[in-house]
Specification:
It is a single chain. This protein is about 55% helix and about 10% strand. It is built from 10 helices and 10 strands. The protein has a 3-stranded antiparallel beta sheet with strand order 4-3-5. Strands 9-8-10 form a 3-stranded antiparallel beta sheet. Helix 7 packs antiparallel against helix 8. It is flat and about 175 Å long.
Length: about 450
């Protein structure tokens, strides 16, 4: 080190000044060490006490846990009560001072659940929510995966509309084939080359690239060719599909305006004989089940409608016959009443007119009884009809009630007139009436 002629160092310190500087640096270092050591001692003084810690037992001190403590499941002390717990039972934290008492300004230490909820001072109380957070995050992932799966499941198969696809086949067959058997034959030849557009569903492009059968999962190859359902276009092997779907025009309704029909063969509702203008289409088992249900529901609906019409027709016929009987019975009862009254007036003297009135009376009495008996028979037939709807049931009930009221009312009037006749007429007149009625019954029975 070079020294200037004046005895000073290049930094402007003299020899004595340099030694003074060194002393100041050493003094500062000593002061820093003293400060650090005092801080360490203060930290040690503020460190929580361990004097109250209990000797570790063999089991966790939590009564609901009681897990066995070992080298793997180590014992942990609660900083508040000093008890020994497993790691899972010390998930709580609370601010404590160095005497292990709750202090809002103290440090955070692990405590047990009982010490966590103890006391009214809740300032600074915290709890570890890591496990809850992880559990919730797992649940959210499960929900997300489920929603993604549900989104994938909401594919075209769930949006598949059977009626729309049936209408597509009916319209396509009507335009491509119509009611011509020659067009049908030419169309079958064209089908061997390429699938017509009207036989391709809305989701054809989604299934045309299938490499395996969508039912049995067998790989397509030269020996196992790929076929498509004409309703849903699902890629299938030959064994998982069949040509049971028949689109046809009934032979008895062949005209340009006739709408084609769809049916599953060998099921109720399908033609018993193959129509001349018809075409067999391939269908998968799932669509076949849906078409069978559709076909059976249609047959049942037509049967119920036909049955309802038959029941209503029977009701109209019975009602017409009953009205005629009621009209005749009412007229005959009126005549019977007039004859009874006239006979009652002439009962004091007997002549040729009274004898003719007696015969007329007997005939009228028999006719009234006969028409009332016919009305009873018709009412019994009316009771046997079974309505198919609520409106029909109400109509049947009102009709039956009206007829029964008419019968009982006229029966009461007829019996009243008969009783009146028996009270007012002499015995010989009643004998003549009875003999006339018996003779008419005998003749009527022998005819």
């Amino acid at each position: 080190m070079s020294v200037s002629p004046s005895g000073r160092s290049p930094w402007g310190f003299e020899g004595e000044g340099h030694s003074a500087w060194t002393k100041q640096v050493e003094l500062a270092g000593l002061t820093a060490d003293t400060t650090a050591s005092s801080a360490d001692s203060e930290d040690k003084k503020k460190e929580i006490s361990r004097k109250h810690w209990k000797t570790p037992g063999s089991n966790c001190s939590n009564k609901d846990c009681k897990v066995k403590l070992s080298l793997i499941q180590r014992a942990h002390h609660c900083r508040r009560c000093g008890g020994t717990f497993c790691e899972n039972c010390l998930q709580y934290k609370r601010r404590l001072n160095h005497l292990a008492n709750p202090d809002p300004d103290g440090k955070r230490y692990k405590v047990c659940q009982q010490c966590f909820v103890e006391g009214k001072d809740n300032q600074g109380v915290i709890v570890s929510m890591t496990s809850t957070f992880l559990e919730l995050r797992t649940q959210i992932k499960v929900v997300q995966n489920t929603s993604e799966t549900a989104t994938k499941d909401r594919s075209w198969r769930n949006r598949f509309d059977l009626e729309v696809e049936c209408k597509r086949l009916i319209t396509g067959f009507k335009l491509a084939v119509g009611n011509s058997e020659l067009k049908r034959s030419l169309h079958e030849v064209k089908t061997l080359i390429a699938v017509p557009n009207w036989q391709k569903s809305t989701y054809w492009m989604m299934e045309v690239k299938a490499e395996s059968c969508q039912t049995c999962k067998s790989k397509f190859s030269l020996m196992r060719k790929k076929h498509h359902c004409r309703l849903c276009s699902r890629g299938l092997c030959k064994s998982c599909s069949s040509k049971d779907l028949l689109v046809y025009i009934p032979d008895e309704e062949r005209s340009n305006q006739t709408e084609p029909r769809l049916a599953i063969i060998k099921i109720n509702g399908s033609p018993t004989v193959e129509p001349e203008v018809s075409l067999y289409l391939r269908i998968c088992k799932a669509c076949q089940e849906k078409m069978v249900d559709r076909q059976m529901n249609k047959v049942e609906k037509e049967f119920m409608e036909q049955r309802s019409q038959d029941v209503f027709t029977d009701l109209i016929m019975l009602h017409t016959a009953v009205e005629k009987i009621k009209e005749t019975a009412a007229r005959q009862l009126t005549e019977y009443q007039v004859i009874v009254e006239s006979l009652e007036d002439n009962s004091s003297h007997e002549n040729s007119d009274s004898k003719s009135n007696i015969k007329t009376l007997a005939k009228s009495q028999e006719d009234v009884a006969d028409y009332l008996s016919q009305l009873v028979v018709k009412i019994q037939h009316l009771k046997k009809l079974k309505p198919e709807s609520n409106s029909q049931a109400i109509l049947f009930k009102n009709c039956l009630k009206s007829n029964c009221d008419f019968y009982f009312e006229n029966l009461h009037q007829f019996r009243y007139q008969t009783r009146k006749l028996s009270e007012s007429a002499p015995p010989n007149v009643l004998e003549i009436i009875q003999r006339t009625v018996d003779t008419h019954d005998f003749q009527h029975g022998t005819l």
